[in-house]
């Protein structure tokens, strides 16, 4: 079993997005446009008066993982929901969805923080019917290894003999939330040939095996080569050693298809993007319910 070499390390620099939100984007930037099947990765912070009001999507899936606070969701089909700390929402846009995602106003004034990952849909499923699946924090299996120094939330996929509750996306994706205390090491096997990355949320982590190691601080995306069997990471202990580290380890099955993206529309050709724009503007071919629709939660922006 060999550790995957590191291909690229990207610093996720904070920028403005949506209406008053702040995001650290790594995938979906000039440095890493696409990492099939992944289209975009945002580490978002949204506070009072900010959010993502009514907007459309076509051709992709989104996975939203809330780290703190709360976020409400509402779409033109009448679907509504709320996710809290540790909860996830998996949304398949398919042929078309129009929705809003708005933060809670927390009593202590704390912002709402989370991750949103955009996953490409296979060509044959681009025009499927939209759907949602929620996964609550209490449903996610927890694995402890290395004498308790490593904890892994198995959100999707497998880790150390434990399977996730269910598959939640059409495109095969593994999503693991890993915490390592000083002195701990994790060696996580991943499916052969899948693209994989680790996004660091806290602390300092050493990635790689043997002499090919890199020390990585928080808010970086570590992209691995496809070659190799597993991802290895550890946190040193002893004098001068850091505190515990946390990162998201994500892997997905690459799709052999062209990606043509215009904002929230992700298709396989320029013509399909033009068609998506026309369908949205005319309220047709999947966007019929968008005509004159306005979300209730989106009205908070005008309040």
How does this structure look, described?
The structure is a single chain. With 303 residues, this protein is mainly beta. The protein has a single domain (6-252), classed as Jelly Rolls (Sandwich). Helices cover 4% and strands 46% of the residues. The chain contains one helix and 26 strands. The longest helix has 13 residues, at 270-282. The mean pLDDT is 94.
How are the elements arranged and paired?
Layout: E1 6-11, E2 14-17, E3 21-25, E4 38-46, E5 52-57, E6 60-68, E7 71-75, E8 80-83, E9 88-92, E10 97-103, E11 112-120, E12 131-135, E13 142-145, E14 150-156, E15 158-159, E16 162-163, E17 173-180, E18 185-189, E19 195-202, E20 205-207, E21 214-216, E22 220-224, E23 230-234, E24 245-252, E25 260-262, E26 265-267, H1 270-282
Antiparallel strand pairs: 1-22, 2-3, 3-4, 4-11, 5-10, 6-9, 6-11, 7-8, 7-10, 9-12, 13-14, 14-17, 15-16, 17-24, 18-23, 19-22, 19-24, 20-21, 20-23, 25-26
InterPro entries: Pirin (IPR012093), Pirin_C_dom (IPR008778), Pirin_N_dom (IPR003829), RmlC-like_jellyroll (IPR014710), RmlC_Cupin_sf (IPR011051)
Pfam families: Pirin (PF02678), Pirin_C (PF05726)
GO molecular function, one term: metal ion binding
What is the oligomer described by this structure? single chain
Computed structural class: mainly beta
Instruction: Give the uncertain stretches in residue-range form.
Output: none
User: How many extended strands?
Assistant: 26
* Average pLDDT, all residues: 94
As for the number of domains, it is 1
Distance between the termini: 57 Å
Radius of gyration (CA) equals 19 Å
Pfam family, one: Pirin
InterPro entries: Pirin, Pirin_C_dom, Pirin_N_dom, RmlC-like_jellyroll, RmlC_Cupin_sf
GO molecular function: metal ion binding
Domain Pirin C-terminal: 176-285
């Amino acid at each position: 079993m060999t550790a995957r070499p590191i291909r690229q390390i990207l610093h996720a620099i904070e920028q403005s997005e949506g209406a008053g939100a702040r995001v650290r984007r790594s995938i979906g930037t000039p440095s890493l446009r696409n990492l099939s099947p992944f289209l975009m990765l945002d580490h978002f912070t949204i506070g009072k008066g900010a959010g993502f009001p009514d907007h459309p999507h076509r051709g992709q899936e989104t996975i939203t993982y809330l780290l703190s606070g709360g976020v409400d969701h509402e779409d033109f089909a009448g679907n509504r929901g709320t996710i809290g700390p540790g909860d996830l929402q998996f949304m398949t846009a398919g042929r078309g969805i129009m929705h809003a995602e708005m933060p809670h106003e927390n009593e202590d004034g704390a912002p709402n923080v989370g991750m949103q990952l955009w996953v490409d849909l296979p060509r044959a499923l681009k025009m499927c019917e939209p759907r949602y699946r929620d996964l609550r924090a209490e449903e996610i299996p927890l694995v402890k290894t290395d004498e308790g120094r490593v904890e892994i939330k198995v959100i999707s996929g497998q880790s150390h003999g434990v399977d996730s509750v269910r598959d939640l996306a059409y495109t095969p994706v593994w999503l693991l939330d890993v915490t390592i205390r000083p002195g701990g090491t994790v060696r996580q096997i991943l499916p052969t040939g899948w693209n994989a990355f680790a996004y660091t949320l806290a602390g300092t982590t050493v990635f790689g095996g043997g002499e090919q190691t890199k020390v990585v601080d928080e808010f970086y995306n570590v992209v691995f080569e496809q070659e190799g069997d597993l991802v290895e990471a550890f946190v040193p202990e002893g004098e001068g050693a850091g505190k515990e580290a946390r990162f998201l380890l994500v892997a997905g099955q690459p799709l052999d298809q062209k990606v043509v993206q215009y904002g929230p529309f992700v298709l396989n050709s320029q013509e399909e993007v033009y068609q998506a724009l026309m369908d949205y503007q005319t309220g047709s071919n999947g966007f019929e319910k968008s005509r004159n629709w306005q979300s209730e939660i989106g009205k908070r922006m005008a309040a």
